[in-house]
Amino acid sequence: IVESETVMKALRAYSERDMATAIFYLKKEIKDNPTNGYANLLLGIIHSQIGEYSEALEPLNNALTYIPADDKKSISQALDSKGEILIELGDSAKALECFDQAISLKPDNANALLNRANAYHDKRDYDRADKDYAALCQLMPTDPKGYLGLARNNLERDNYNGALTILNDAIELIPNDGNVYLMRSEAYFLLDK
Questions:
Q1: Burial classification of residue 113, based on how many CB atoms lie within 10 Å of its CB (0-12 exposed, 13-18 middle, 19 or more buried)
Q2: Fewer CB within 10 A of the terminal residue: the chain, N end or C end?
């Protein structure tokens, strides 16, 4: 990130969860240095986090223009953030394009994998969602999100035993996550119906 005094003030405000002040300083930085892709990226992320989706798109597009091409991690993050916003704005097709690009640049971008898997799930494209959830399980074996996604897809396909197998495996790896136990109880309930 370009570390001007203004950006440092914005980062400090952001770390203190003072979004209004962070936005103020980031806008000041961008006015003084419009090609600061990192300031644009952070501004877009903050607008997204506080639900100002239409305000987030322009700085994210600027970030994609100005972040150096060799910084694949930041570009992937900007694409993932843009995809999240497009989902919120109801454009899942363009969102999926953003997630695809983010993952292509950085295959270990767990957030983009999860977002793409959820987007496929919402379209009821369970096979593609399963591939991303499985990749997430491989990438982050002690994080429940991938297992929960796989189990949810199995439940929606009425494959209760498949869901239980996944959830039991998850419990072995992540014994303290209540969400896994909750979904397992739902699977048992559905199996007994």
A1: buried
A2: C
